[in-house]
Each structure stands twice: as structure tokens, then as C-alpha cells.
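Z., the sequence and structure:
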Amino acid sequence: MYKSLLLLIAAGLAFLLVQCKAKPHPALGIGDPVPDIVLYNQNNEQIHIKDYIGKNSLVIYFYPKDDTPGCTKEACKFRDEFEVFTNLHAKVFGISSDDVASHKAFADKYHLSFSLLSDKDNKVRKRFGVPSFGAGLIPGRVTYIIDKKGVIRYVFNSMKHPEEHIDKAIEILKSF
């Protein structure tokens, strides 16, 4: 038993060491092109972000989890301001690691009028360089404002103020 426990601890430490040495993508910032994202939304439709480049500005927001207090406030404010985003020729996409079924339930419950994209393996989150908190256990909340050319024009990072993401997005989009 003692030997098994030591082996398990050693394996865990080896795993953590490898993870610490893995080089994450640098965080995307202002002036960077938006990467090609291909994810499924709450209706199990494959969404290609590049399909919107040249047609719309984009608001891509990463959030921790469906149906949690802060994430619900954020999503509902995006819903409530949906007409403003439409008038500004902007498409809104929310991204979390929740699966398609969870996104569907969340979108239906709160009548969300935009796509929630499922990033189950967090590849897109990592590609953008979205930070995590609490020893990596809590995914970060970051919003990217992207112009029609596909260039990131603004990044807003705040875990504590989920509704400010929407206000900032509108402010930046109006400046285009």
C-alpha cells in the first residue's frame, strides 16, 4: 500500500513537472490576427470564425462555466444588448469548456440569442492564452473585440466584473 502511494505521488509530480515545462501559446493581444476557430455551438452546428471575417466585427468572450452566477449575468447582459451588437454589425460568441448539451440547456434557459461554443479540451482557450486562476482550476473571463479584418482591437480581462465586458465591447465597437 505504502509503495503504491509513493508511486502515485511520483507519477503525479512527474506529470506536474511536464506540464510546467510545456510552453503555452503567448496570450493574444491587440494587433494580433484572430486564429481560425472551428467549434460546435449549442445547436451542434460547426462554427468557423473565419467565415465572419470581412463581414462582421466579432466579440469573442471566454467564460468559466454555464449557469453559474457571474457567467449567467454576463450572458444575459450580452442577450439584453443583442440589438446593439447587431446594429454595430458585430457577432457575439461565448466560449467555455462546457459541452454542447450544457450550452443548449443554458441558452434555452436564459433565451440567449448568440452562439455558445464548446471548447471541451480547452485548445482554443490555450491558443488565445486566456489565463486561469486558483492554481489553474478556474478558467478566466476574457473578452476579445475583433474588427472586420480579423484583427484583435481590444482585450478585456476581468473575473470580478462580468457585466463590464459587455459595456467595454460596445464602447470599443462604437469607436470603429
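The helical segments are 2-21, 69-80, 82-87, 100-110, 123-128, 164-174. The chain has six helices and nine strands.

Let me know what you think.
H.
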